[in-house]
Amino acid sequence: MIELLVNTQLIPLVLLGIFVLTFVLQQVFYWIFFWRLGRYRNREAGEHSKGVSVVICARNEFHHLKENLPLILEQDYPLFEVLVVNHSSEDDTQYLLTELAEKYPNLKNIVIQHDLNFFTGKKFPLSIGIKSAKYDLILLTDADCKPASKNWIRHMQSAYTSKVEVVLGYGPYYRSKGLLNKLIRFDTVHIAIQYLSYALAGIPYMGVGRNLSYMKEIFYRNNGFISHYRIRSGDDDLFINRVAKRSNTTVMAHPDSFTFSDPQKSLAKWVLQKKRHLLTSSHYKFRHQLMLWLYAFTLVAFYSVFIVLLSLNWSVFPVLGLFVLRLISQYVVFGRCMKQLNERDLILFLPFYEILLILFNGGIMISNIFHKPTRWK
């Protein structure tokens, strides 16, 4: 009976200890890492003349290219080219590119009819585009992405110094009505806060191909995508995970440097996209996986233990006090970061979106254990 009583009293103490530990770790993530993005000041875009090669891979992207490509070709920058790799398109992409090339002499059209057997997905056409580039500075985006301004190239290029070889940008999604849009955009900005903040802390681990730049030399020096060519995805994040270092990587978070695109319109398509991303992240360097898993664990553990402690009606006021302190930190740090990334409309219901995302990602990870996606864009 005494042993049972001791065990009964010990359980809440252990749970409280876990709760306090996750609270402290969350504060470390917020104030040591994420606050770096919140207080970051971008370099001013001055007058530069370094040549830039914008590389875009397209497969049946006629409508997106028709809408977005002229905005890229008409960037306010003195020396740049745009290479569009037409990857086995079956629509009118080639006719559009031929027509635009007559109007824009800085457009270079590369046609690929067949893949090499050992390359899959986007890596082969992207490699061809990079190797065909005239200039040493490579700037990547997708066919469905639209620059936020005519100074996109200028801002991304301005982040380079003599030591920088990699510039990580931000690629937000357009706002629209509905909970799915807000959840996708929250997920996107949540990921961006992490990879941009960690890069500012000297721990770069990924970038997104919607808005990413690096020097051609670093691509050649690391043999392109050879180290992960068997993995369908990862032309952006896995490559950056292999080559980015504290000494050669920086970020660009100026609103004029963003590239916008439309998010998935259906939950099923977004689920497939998330399954792919989560599987790709399992190939990151171990220390990066550990860092990401620790943050995810503290999120899940904090909310789970909070609910259990409240249900036990044990030390309610200290528990609620820590919860409120954590909430204040979250609003201050994430709010500042979201303002930095022009996602202000997501701030008000931040905890609600976070809880939904925890549940969603948990379901995706369980699903990936039993069924890995076999269909990729």
Give an account of the 3D structure.
The chain is of the alpha/beta class. The chain folds into two domains: 7-39 and 287-370, no CATH class; 52-265, Alpha-Beta Complex (Spore Coat Polysaccharide Biosynthesis Protein SpsA, Chain A), CATH 3.90.550.10. It has twelve helices and nine strands. The protein has helices spanning 2-38, 62-73, 93-103, 123-131, 152-158, 179-200, 216-221, 237-243, 267-281, 286-312, 316-340, 350-370, and strands spanning 52-58, 80-87, 107-112, 137-140, 146-147, 166-168, 212-215, 249-251, 259-260. A seven-stranded mixed sheet has the order 3-2-1-4-7-6-8, with helices on both faces. A two-stranded antiparallel sheet has the order 5-9. It is elongated, with a radius of gyration of 23 Å. The relative contact order is 0.15. The model has no long low-confidence stretch (mean pLDDT 91).
